[in-house]
Amino acid sequence: MASWRVAKRMFCAAAEKAAAPVRRGRWEKLKNSKAGVWCRSLVSDYREASKEIFVGAWERPVKASVYMAVLGGAWACFYTKPDCLSFETALLERSNQLGLLSPWIRNATSDSHVQGLVKLQNEGRLRHTSLGLLSLIYRADYDPDTTLYEARCSNLSVPWRELPQRVVDVGFAGRWWILNSKMQDYDVNEEEFKHLPPHMKVTSPPNVQGVERNERLHREYWLALTVDDSKIEVHVMDRKEGSVSEDSLIKPQTEKQAQT
After folding, report:
1. CA–CA distances in Å: residue 173 to residues 33, 46, 70, 73, 100
2. Where are the annotated coiled coils located (predicted)?
């Protein structure tokens, strides 16, 4: 009878303990909340997407290599994209290069392009904009500090469709391409050669024999002169004979003067 009572008490205590609500911690509440469920689903989606990427790259290596090359090239272009300060530095260097040359030998195209950019920069009309993978330098109508009505009114501003006509340079892969192209042969004035015949205007690169000949002549130019001993002896004998003949001519003249 006593054992039956003990067992009954144990079963009742177990039933009460099971029926009592379980206290949940803060972490459990946070996981079961809406934000926790959304974060877990987001992490699960990213995990599945990453798994599919690796599986797809393993199954199609060529396609994955092309994608990686494109992404790497885009990142390199974005990282090496020149900014406005680099354009000002490049323009100053090109202007100094032209300033070291005489006006008679400057290339007219290079000089006019650089002088136009310098004028726009002094007027404060150059603008810089970034397009992600490349940069653009374009000209505006007014300085940004201008307080004129035409410069401040938004209705009179230049539309974006006119931007291609206003672009003066394009920066890509660490270079300003239009400025560099205009500076090709900046020290050659084509006006000096416009009166030459056509066959003299065209120059062809030298062949291998011509290059070797020029190099050989250049090396021989710096060699010390060597004279043979036989040539020296012949030269000395010639000088001695010349001095003897001069003495023979001078001696009769002195005797005639003494007789007179």
Report:
1. 49, 33, 15, 10, 28
2. none
Tell whether pTM > 0.70: no
Could you give the count of Cα atoms lying within 13 Å of 150 in the half-sphere of its Cβ? Answer: 5
53 forms beta bridges with none
Strand partners, 176: 171
pLDDT band of residue 228 (cuts 50, 70, 90) is low
Measured from the Cβ of residue 252, the count of other Cβ atoms closer than 10 Å reads 9
DSSP 32-62: HSHHHHHHHHHHHHHHHHHHHHHHHHHH-HH
Nearest to 117 by CA among 50, 32, 39, 179: 179
Angstrom distance (rounded) from CA 33 to CA 28: 9
3-state helix, strand, coil in the chain (%, to 5): 65, 5, 25
* 83 three-class SS: coil
Mean pLDDT (the chain, rounded): 75
Q: Burial, 21: exposed, middle or buried (Cβ in 10 Å; 0-12, 13-18, 19+)?
A: exposed
The full set of domain ranges for the chain reads: 28-59, 84-193
CB atoms within 10 A of CB 107: 21
Burial 212-229 (b: 16+ CB within 10 A, else e): eeeeeeeeeeeeeeeeee
Percent of the chain whose pLDDT exceeds 70: 73
52-65: burial string, b at 16+ Cβ within 10 Å, e else: eeeeeeeeeeeeee
Query: Are 189 and 107 spatial neighbours (Cβ–Cβ below 8 Å)?
Result: yes
The DSSP bridge partners found for residue 30 are none
**How much is the pLDDT for 249?**
47
